[in-house]
Design brief:
single chain; about 280 residues; alpha/beta; Rossmann fold; N-(1-d-carboxylethyl)-l-norvaline Dehydrogenase, domain 2; two-stranded parallel ribbon; about 10% strand; oxidoreductase; HIBADH-like_NADP-bd; NADP binding; 6PGD_dom2; oxidoreductase activity, acting on the CH-OH group of donors, NAD or NADP as acceptor
Length: about 280
């Protein structure tokens, strides 16, 4: 994701330096024609764009060895496109402000393909003035941008979105399996669902694109979705609101670490649901 975003920005005319903790990843970026630097040797920049697996990685990049908080010139903007813990994001946003920097959380959807084509969706959490300042960059990266509130808000809504996506994968798989057992072809079932109120991005995109095709190459792993679900559950617990359905979805995604494995494409969560509900019948 991060590499594709960097290459998209370069193609749009921005001066971009890519970085990664792994030398092999930096070598791949360099082979694609991107200037690269080690994390502790980043050049001064107006914007530092982060795309990392977890909030712990975001914190490490910002605060350690020596960290962007110390490297960045005053007035620079930190844009975090990761799917991060909102509480950590709000803490880091305060530290960014104290360091004379600006903050914007901008978690994305659209996968590696969207990053490569500049067609991502972005949920923005930060000040309006900060968004306006980096809007040319955001426009080059994304097809749709939604400002949902102050720092951390983008990550709150991203967790809500991924919770619904995770739930829709399970419920759509059960609906398709039920229809298949009753003699309705999965493609026909999906066409019917997509003409009615039961449709979702999962039924309209994920199922035809990755599940029924058996390609399972969306670029987003089961492990990352499991992480996001845990973050959503933890956020709800910190707010003191009981969300039993969310916990059910979390439990379902963690029920079997081998089916699917963390490294599998996240759409594979449908495979055991379909197989179990249809008693092994071919879909």
């Amino acid at each position: 994701m991060g590499g594709n975003m960097a290459l998209t920005l370069k193609a749009a005319g921005f001066a971009v330096t890519g970085s990664d903790v792994f030398e092999q990843a930096r070598a791949r970026l360099a082979a694609d024609g991107l200037a690269v630097a080690a994390p502790n040797a980043l050049p001064a920049s107006d914007v530092y764009l982060l795309s990392l697996p977890t909030s712990a990685h975001v914190r490490e990049v910002l605060e350690h060895s020596p960290g962007i908080f110390k490297l960045a010139p005053k007035g620079s903007v930190i844009v975090d496109t990761s799917t991060s813990d909102p509480a950590v994001s709000r803490e880091l946003a305060k530290k960014a402000l104290a360091a004379g920097l600006e903050w914007l959380d901008a978690p994305v959807s659209g996968g590696p393909k969207g990053a490569a084509s500049g067609k991502l969706g972005m949920l923005l959490g930060g000040e309006t003035a900060t968004i306006e300042r980096v809007m040319p960059m955001l426009e080059a990266m994304s097809a749709k941008r939604t400002h949902v509130g102050g720092p951390g808000s983008g990550h709150v809504v991203k967790l809500a979105n991924n919770y619904l996506c995770a739930a829709h994968l399970l419920t759509t798989a059960e609906a398709v399996a039920m229809a298949a057992k009753a003699g309705v072809e999965p493609a026909a079932c999906l066409a019917g669902l997509n003409s009615g109120s039961g449709r979702s991005a999962v039924s309209e995109v994920n199922f035809p694109e990755w599940v029924l095709s058996e390609r399972f190459d969306s670029g987003f792993t089961t492990g990352l979705m499991r992480k996001d679900l845990r973050l959503a559950r933890d956020a709800a617990e910190q707010l003191g609101i009981p969300l039993p359905l969310l916990q059910t979805v979390v439990d379902a995604w963690h029920a079997n670490a081998d089916q699917p494995t963390d490294s599998d494409d996240f759409n594979h969560i449908t495979t055991p649901v379909l197989a179990r509900a249809t008693h092994g019948d071919t879909l």
